[in-house]
Amino acid sequence: MALLQDLIRSIADGMVEVIDLTAPLSEKTPIIQLPAPFANTRRFELTQISRYDERGPAWYWNDISTGEHVGTHFDAPIHWVTGREGKDVSQVPARQLIAPAAVIDKSQECSANPDFLLQVSDVEVWEREHGPLPEGGWLLYRTGWDARADDQRRFLNADDTGPHTPGISVECAKWLAAEAPVIGVGVETVGTDAGKAHSFDPAFPCHAFLLGAGKYGLTQLANLASLPPTGAVVIAGPLPITRGSGSPARVLALVER
Ligand code: MN
């Protein structure tokens, strides 16, 4: 009781800051573009039902249509074939939706090289400075890519050879899935894998290894620059879509000031 009262008081007086890690969700929200013959997701869309008019004189409301993997969203294990026997998004335990976060900043490296890949050695260097990755927590990977989120072309950064966006190496994805104590990784890009991860072995290693290990993904996060390397608490709220492979999510962080 006292603990929660302290928390509420600390939020009210600014000792605990609430940082929104969620990108705005609209028709302009960038979506992943898979090449033929693969099927693509639909965009987020609002369809008006009524707006204080003859269809509903005192009320405004909309229908929404969206892909599960649009905007800031949560990847559940069954999103990938390696996790097909795992949890759908409605089965993720609520207590795992509140978890500590480690934040690794590679925005400098990614601005010099959009194909930058996080290596196990990068995480080991981070751990020497900040301590071990949090048990049951997230590894949040800052790349600076959220600055491009208002422009689909710059966000996907594709040329004739495909998209060029930062990601995680095959070895590091395998290590995060099998060795690290985290429940998942969170990124600023359109998916947890690098733009060129279609050509990796295995393809899309973050999806293959992490979801295959029953872990999770968070994508298109914003404002990771406002988080300290350790100590933030992430509250991730995907919709409990029955049989869903993922869901748009409101993601917040609590940070002590
Ligand atoms: Mn996804």
Descriptive key words:
257 residues; alpha/beta; Glucose Oxidase, domain 1; two-stranded antiparallel ribbon; 6 helices; 14 strands; globular; binds manganese (II) ion
Structure write-up:
This protein has helices at 2-12, 107-112, 120-130, 152-156, 170-178, 205-212, and strands at residues 16-20, 45-53, 56-65, 73-75, 98-105, 117-118, 138-142, 158-159, 162-163, 167-168, 184-187, 216-219, 232-238, 246-256. With 257 residues, the chain is of the alpha/beta class. The protein has one domain (11-29, 68-256): Putative cyclase (Glucose Oxidase, domain 1, 3-Layer(bba) Sandwich), CATH 3.50.30. α5 (170-178) packs parallel to α6. The longest helix has 11 residues, at 2-12. The chain is globular. It binds manganese (II) ion.
Task: Quickly describe the structure.
The protein is an alpha/beta fold and 257 residues long.
CATH architecture: 3-Layer(bba) Sandwich
* Alpha-carbon distance between the two ends: 22 Å
Quote the beta fraction. Answer: 25-35%
Low-pLDDT ranges: none
Order of helices and strands: HEEEEEHEHEHEEEHEHEEE
Give the name of the CATH superfamily. Answer: Putative cyclase
Q: For the largest beta sheet, what order do the strands appear in spatially?
A: 4-12-11-7-5-13-14
Assign an overall shape: globular
Class derived from helix and strand content: alpha/beta
Question: Helicity, in percent?
Answer: 10-25%
The third-level CATH topology is Glucose Oxidase, domain 1
What is the makeup of the main sheet? 7 strands, mixed, barrel
How many discrete structural domains?
Answer: 1
Number of strands: 14
Count helical runs.
Answer: 6
- What is the arithmetic mean of pLDDT? 98
| Cofactors, ions, other ligands | manganese (II) ion
Indicate the radius of gyration in whole angstroms. Answer: 19 Å
Q: Can you identify the CATH class?
A: Alpha Beta
